[in-house]
Input
Amino acid sequence: MSAARGRWARSLSSALALGATDTIFALCSGRGPCGVAVIRTSGPGSRGVLQSLTGTPKLPPPRVLALRRIRDPQTAESLDRGLVVWFPGPRSFTGEDCAELHLHGGTAVVSGVLRALGRLPGLRPAERGEFTLRAFRRGKLDLTGAEGVRDLIGAETAAQRRQALRQAEGELGQLLQRWSRTLTQALAHLEAFIDFGEDEDVEEEVLSRVSVSVRELEREIRAHLRDGRRGERLRAGVRAVIAGPPNVGKSSLFNLLCQRPAAIVSPHAGTTRDVLEVPLDIGGYPLVLGDTAGLRRAADPVEREGVTRARARLGQADLVLAVLDVTAVAPAALAEALATLELPPGVPCLLVLNKADLLRGSPSAPRGSPSVPRCPQGPPGVPTALLSCKTGQGLQELLELLGKQLEQLHTGDTGDIGDVALAAEQLRLARRELGRITGHVGAEDVLEIIFRDFCVGK
Output
């Protein structure tokens, strides 16, 4: 563990043990010169912070911006003229008394105010994620909401933003709480049967009602877990791999989608030897696009290693962009040509027929060029796009198909109860595990994992 990481862990442990009663401060608007910089405080000393820096005991009305002169309490030097906001607890982000200073974002202004705050008694700089940690400790959000805040800070695409915002606002937490209530009710009924099953007041049908309830909950949870990694895909990006025989335009397609010469393009087959990856935003969805070596039996040992790596990456793919030379494959043989690539089964595939500029009817097509339907039909269930990486013809249609694929990628029965005591224990364990996710049961051992990835000031 690094020294910084060790300090963070000690601070976290201290916050958990002491209830975070001290007052913290941090720049929460990002570093570097900017139009407006926001410095936040949280804790019982926040009232005194505003009074000291504005030089007046009178605070502005809660949650109302007020223009004030900001001074160094120690030297009385004027540091800035900006807006201040007072958030008395519990109606604040952390649930504690909070204050915000909205200053001019110059380096000298920000550093001067931070130095002044650091000299005030009872104040200390905040650790990474400590504001959100305090919000969690005071019940302002659960762990799923905290993770949503973290994802919202790191969101790079519109879809990532939408998902993170839903989670930060409690959508996932509410679902888990509903599951927890169902488990609690089922557990209560089972324990009542165990304790009072011989009494007339507890009917035998309680077991069947519990069984139906738990089976329905299990089906719902299984359906939730079978969502095809949509949440993970939105966070990290869909792993898409461009695959096909050598010299069909895979690297050209890679460069076209990247809008820059990211891969070497050569008329010689086997140029690509390693896997190249670039993160992209396609229609608001994150995509990690990989260019791979041509799939063929290679004699050269370096190219053979490239093919091996291509196969390995295909095994990890969420989506395959299979590229074929439209001039080299008859429309009736597309399915057979696609099958020769031996793509991993069950992985969605988008077929790209490249070199459309060489077809009969295209301005740049040589005499005697083959002719294919303008909207070729690929194998059943495989979306197909006709494209020219050279001229850009068909690019918009390809992007629309790709966007639909990404949208689709992001959008069990059990036996009888058996032994009632064992079933009750299983329900208790299930309820405890749900509580660990939301932070309502045994959260301390997962707090570090969640909050250590936050930025300072949040």
Notes: Residues 15 and 21 are 8 Å apart (CA to CA). Residues 1-19, 416-420, 441-446 have pLDDT under 50 and may be disordered. The chain has three domains: 22-126, 151-226+415-447, 232-393.
